[in-house]
Amino acid sequence: MHTELEKAGVNRPHIVVLQGPGLGDFFEITDDKLVLGSDPFLADIVVRDVEVEPRHAELYRKPGGYAVRGVQAAKTIALNGEVMEEPGCGQLLSDGDRIHVGDSVLEFSHQDEIKASFYEQLHLLVNRDHLTGLFSKGRFDREFEHRLEAMADEGRPLSVLMADIDSLKKVNDANGHLLGEFVVGEIGRIIGAMHEEGGRRATRFGGDEYQGVLPDLSKQEAMRVAEEIRRRVEAQTFERDDVAAKTTISIGVASYPEDGTTHQELTHAADAALYRAKRAGGNTVSD
Asked: Which one from 49, 164, 208, 287 is the annotated catalytic residue?
């Protein structure tokens, strides 16, 4: 961390969304410059707000701390309720300052470690599934809609996965529900590892079902991702407290726009593909 920030008593610079569609979103600031905007491919701080430009503003380090400046002249930025008259010139941020973009309000803070930890833990509780670490269903659905809208606006592809563990009941019956729960969590982590880049998101759809969204991937590309997930699950031995089990997974794939143009249509298409994979005997990827 730079000397001038240390002198200012900076601890954990961060942004938290206090108002708007991304309520509770937490972003730790670690780089010298970050883009704030609505496009997950262009922005470091992604504000899920249709009134926010893909690249709306920048947070950048300067002597004395961090400053904010606009990068899209068509959209305004307000700081603590006052519109920045020359947003391109930038303005130094103080602890507790509130940045207004679109319909969202973001708070900047850097001097309160306890508050930063609180917001971070709150973000995890609200947005993450406790068993798998994947997105909670509500948060995933919002992310799905946001990414689908962005891809549709630019004529880019998007694919959806629906997955279901094969014969989890047999694992539960043979080894107990604690191992079955462990398997559900570990498979969630395998799926999560394949959804860590490119704006990908995944959730636990139900007890032992999962859903993933893959922006910018055609059906062929998504089939390869699904096949890698299937292969990793098949190869894994799930062991806990000296009890081990093997299982497999079935996955259905659907893509925008050929299989549907809405969240609901794509989910139904991927679910139908999953059903075909199950009917084929499981441990299969189907479209």
From this structure: 208
